[in-house]
Amino acid sequence: MTTLLNRRQWLKAAGVTLAATAVAPRLSRLEAATLPAAPSATSGLVQLSWNENPFGPAPSAQRAMIAAVARSCRYPDDEEQTLLEMVAAREGCPTGQIVLGNGSGEILDAAGFHFGYDKGEIIAANPSYMQLVEAAQRAGGGAVRVPLNARLEHDLPAMAAAISPRTSLVYIVNPNNPTGTVCDAAELKEFVRTVSARVPVFIDEAYLECTDDFAGRTCAGLATSGHNVVVARTFSKIFGMAGCRLGYAVMPEKLAVSLRARMTGSLSLTTIMAGTASLGDTAYVTATRAKIKAGREALTAQAKALGKECTAAQGNFVFMRTGRPVKDFIARMRAEGVIVGRPFPPLTDWARITVGLPEEMEICHRALRKVLG
After folding, report:
1. Which of 108, 225, 260, 286 has the largest CB neighbor count within 10 A?
2. CATH of domain 77-279
3. Strand 121-126 relative to strand 98-101: parallel, antiparallel, unpaired?
4. Distance separating alpha carbons of residues 190 and 169, to the nearest angstrom
5. What percent of the chain has pLDDT over 70?
6. What is the pTM of this model?
7. Farthest-apart Cα atoms in the chain, separation
């Protein structure tokens, strides 16, 4: 018996092949009304472990993706060039200094291979997001892991002191993942100016647009003004496009040529059009940032009400000290219907929890009170 797919079934359908007779009426309806915020895809559980943004993508991005379906028989060269020019205008630099990628992850991999080649060493915080470092290690490179300071922030003086003749790159995630902490803006920029005269510096700003002072904190201006700096951004977080895969980085033109040679150079038309629309929808970004902040502050307040320490997180997640082995906390929360972040050694009693939809956070708060109360 044939049944009409509901939205969740349609989005989960294997292969993502859209039969025209089944989908055309649905697309017509979607052109008039965009999808609401998306609940967790994990059946029966609230998914708060992947730092997804459930509020996006913007309605304008949804409409752009739907419109792109009809033109998906065409290669998106012109549209990709338009997106590239829009990103370059946003950053105030030539297009030659911009590298687009399938999420910022593809750029992190390319940079890891580039700087890990010939046994180059990457200096990075511990714990932090390790995709670039792991790519460097696969390429034969090494890693120097510098512990966070007492506030669980990057220890910039210690990272500078760790530089050696073997160092090929200093990698900073700001805000850091999993702790959510941000570097002092002035201190970080001075660090980058000084250190980039010795070795390249890579700043991963995946979560920076979730902060209150993105414009004042970003290091992109250093990348565009001649310093040996890379700044990477993703559309997965503030723009809510984790499933679309789009990111970019700003860097010196010579390095951009090298990194492009290590990448596929292939973005889908739907992703390109969604990214272009998202960049133009500043009002939606502002509203989404406010929702994320409200959820983060409420979750932090709940943790503190239970007597639990939290970092001064500025991403779309909270990092709390549970007071018990984190593996036990993860299992207890899952039993209450909530999936939280994996362990992040050496912080073995700390847990990362993503900000979800309001109704998901109600379930999370209730679970926290039961598990930690």
Report:
1. 108
2. 3.40.640.10
3. unpaired
4. 17
5. 88
6. 0.88
7. 68
